[in-house]
């Protein structure tokens, strides 16, 4: 639910908020050397520390010199430790 609504100008908007929040599910995996490694389903937010741990323990061990890693613009992809790992 959003924390906003429509009301008359200069009048305070009063309403009940349901309190129901939707659960977030993240799915991730790496595809290296024609195989999927370390697929993971996470019913929570995926964050920098988790990405760094997965990257250092799984992805980096599978990479060979000259391979390319493609990532989107997520904040956890841009951390200094991620840059150092790759």
Automatic annotation (TrEMBL):
<protein>
    <recommendedName>
        <fullName>Tc1-like transposase DDE domain-containing protein</fullName>
    </recommendedName>
</protein>
<dbReference type="InterPro" id="IPR038717">
    <property type="entry name" value="Tc1-like_DDE_dom"/>
</dbReference>
<feature type="domain" description="Tc1-like transposase DDE">
    <location>
        <begin position="2"/>
        <end position="85"/>
    </location>
</feature>
<dbReference type="Pfam" id="PF13358">
    <property type="entry name" value="DDE_3"/>
</dbReference>
